[in-house]
Amino acid sequence: MTIHYATKEPLAPFNSPEYTSLFGITKQQNILLVNYQALNAITNFELVHQFMLKNGHKSLVIFDVPKDSDVIPLKEWPNLKGLFYEGTDDTLFHQGLEAIDQGELWFPRAVTDTWMKQILASEQQTTLQSNNLTCKEIKVLNLLCSGLHSSAIADKLFISEATVRVHLHKVYQKIAVKNKQQALEWCKNNLSKINS
Q1: 102-112 as b/e, with b when 16 or more CB fall inside 10 Å?
Q2: For residue 158, which of 183, 139, 185, 142 has the smallest C-alpha distance?
Q3: How far is residue 12's CA from residue 3's CA, in Å, rounded to a whole number?
Q4: What SS3 class is residue 31?
Q5: What backbone torsions phi and psi does residue 58 show, to the nearest 5 degrees?
Q6: At a CB cut-off of 8 Å and minimum separation 6, what does 115 contact?
Q7: pLDDT in tens, 26-63
Q8: CA 108, CA 93: separation in Å to the nearest integer?
Q9: pLDDT above 90 covers what percent of the chain?
């Protein structure tokens, strides 16, 4: 397997103390490799996303992740398909890249456990919040998320605009948001679960 690095000078293997590359690209799999040290320091989501689009990279791999780091924010990186801890031996690293090339995901068990716990807690919170919504509040929320303003929602439901505002106030409290923008974001992530 050939790995092309962003720097021109030859580099030592991944486990070597002299190894300092922040970016690399696997030629055969066309996977973008980003060193954990480079995240948020010299790059951001949009920069990585644009670079991947421009160069046709379908997968992102973050490597040299410290075992004690907070892995929850890492799942937000675009097209993330794999993650490797510091000190991962070359054989396992290359095995992981081959698996990613075949369409698999490659994450340490501790990482997937952390992410699943967060997802389950979020889903439980959403279920609790949505179970407290009345049928009328769900209708108001659906109409709000479809882009209607309070007056149009009132016309659709044959209620006054003041009643719509009361419903929205109660909805915002129940789903733990403070304004329309946060409510729209909540709807984007959760409304399909309520409506199904």
Answers
A1: eeeebbbeebe
A2: 139
A3: 12
A4: strand
A5: -95, -20
A6: 71, 72, 75, 107
A7: 666 778 888 888 876 656 778 888 888 888 888 889 99
A8: 12
A9: 24
